[in-house]
Amino acid sequence: FKHYLRLCPVLCSKPWQRNTHDTAACRLYFNGQTAELTKTEMKILHLLFTHAGAFVPREDLIEYLWENHIFLDDNTLSVHVTRLRDKLRSVQLNDFIETKRGVGYRI
After folding, report:
1. What is residue 26's predicted lDDT score, i.e. its pLDDT?
2. H/E/C letters for each residue in the chain?
3. Distance CA 3, CA 47 (A)
């Protein structure tokens, strides 16, 4: 997560000017609201922010998150992204993560 701290200029720039985050506590603050994230959700955001504007393939996310050390159901990543989207919506970050079927995810 140390690399995540370098992303603050991206996180704090428009359109999310009033955004801060606490990486160690896995919290995202936006417009005075707090989203409690899991370690996996923080890692998903980290990888998406490091590739902001570009689609990140599902396979890259799976390898980054779990390093292929365990067998995962194909739906596991989708469940994590769905839960992350719900938490982002709770702080008014609607449609923050875009999905392109057969390509991947991007912010």
Report:
1. 84
2. CHHHHCCHHHHCCCCCCCEEEECCCCEEEECCEEEECCHHHHHHHHHHHHCCCCCECHHHHHHHHHCCCCCCCCCHHHHHHHHHHHHHHHCCCCCCCEEECCCEEEC
3. 10
- State phi, psi for 14 to the nearest 5 degrees: -55, 145
Sign of the alpha-carbon dihedral angle for 2, 37, 86, 8: negative
For 29, the token pair is: 């603050």
Query: Tens digits of per-residue pLDDT, 1-53?
Result: 344 444 444 444 444 445 566 666 788 888 888 899 999 999 999 899 899 99
Structure tokens at 105: 């995810």
